[in-house]
């Protein structure tokens, strides 16, 4: 067992050095030895299962029969056998080479050739300029028994590839002889050379429908409602049909028929500055809208055969502009008129951000936001701690109502508003959920030190700092009944409830100082900021004189 362990350790060392120990012509496989035939590769050590021989393999001693000189260093297997008869087995399976300083060829930057069948050689003419071969010694790995198996090959593909069927896989190995020449009948390894196992391509997939095809044309071109059809195909397996219908019907409202050939719709499309807009699409509003006409180079359009018995609206659509809507006005002479004004798309922006709220568990809380732009945003999305809330469950719009709040619903809330012109995001608002009986504003004020004049020391150490107290401006629980709307109320915050006047002795006089004696909840102080800006016309960039500035719906300034 000791010999077997030693051989296995030698094999492991050889495998571990596979990237560093040169076997064959690993240093430069493309070299052909200066016109000589390259040595044939020996069997890879990874292919040999030497353990099947029962005793493994072991390394020989190191040999060095030639010294570098002349053409290089040559350590041929034939010469080693001549000088050291019986020291090398008949068929070595691996070879190692190192310099006499125990360095690998690649560590000294030399090109060498090594083969367990031939031996080793290093040619001076193959080395880098100015370099000659080092003095090398080599050793061989010899199996301790002359018959052993190669490693098993990979498993073959399954003999049956159809789903739901079973077949077999095989793998093989070769019986290898370490001696040079023996009778064929003597090469016998214990065990089988072929191994088989059952295999399967797996169960067949369930039948599945392919994607629906496009909708076909409507069964009616105009007038009363019609139907249209789309189809899909079944991807069958083992002739099992798919569950469900292969066709689907849908009602399609047709375009209006030109039942009033003597009537005409005329109109114009312009910008807010009165500039004509060509190639604007004009639709008759309905479900779905019906394309009537396109405006010409002068912004004019006309459509015939449109009856004027019932009131109707037309809409104008053009890239870069918000959709405009206008009623059709009839003058009683068979001609109807519609004039549309388009406004350029304006990215939405927030005009009302949600505010921080504090609630006791079980109460109701309302968050509000509002955005403006062209067109005015109508789609709002609410997020809790960055996660989108389900609109179908909470039924929110620009207003989010949470009933019976729990501690798990505490955190930050913000909203997004989107239009075809873009998306805008509100500032986050913090929701604090208190347990029953928990205080958000403690009556005892927090320490807050002020510096007194030099003649007013407060202790033996001469400190001139005095604690006047402060109330942290934390939000307080509000009244859900009073805060259910989206008004601009100040809310409730922790603040000063009561102050006291104290007199501090200062060099023979008394300095009156007011200190905070008690904190409590009350209306929050409203911060004031200065907003500056410049107003210009959107189309010309001209400064806008005598304009009016509004904050929300309230006028705050003239330009």
UniProtKB/TrEMBL annotation:
Annotated SUPFAM superfamilies: Carboxypeptidase regulatory domain-like, Immunoglobulin, TSP-1 type 1 repeat
Subcellular location: Secreted, Extracellular space, Extracellular matrix
InterPro entries: CarboxyPept-like_regulatory, CILP-1/2_b-sand_dom2, CILP-1/2_dom, CILP1/CILP2, Ig-like_dom, Ig-like_dom_sf, Ig-like_fold, Ig_sub
Signal sequence region: 1-19
Pfam family, one: TSP_1
Region span, Disordered: 20-40
Gene Ontology CC entries for this record: extracellular space
Keyword match Signal: yes
Domain Ig-like as annotated: residue spans: 348-432
Protein name as it appears in the record: Ig-like domain-containing protein
Organism, scientific name: Patagioenas fasciata monilis
Species classification: Eukaryota, Metazoa, Chordata, Craniata, Vertebrata
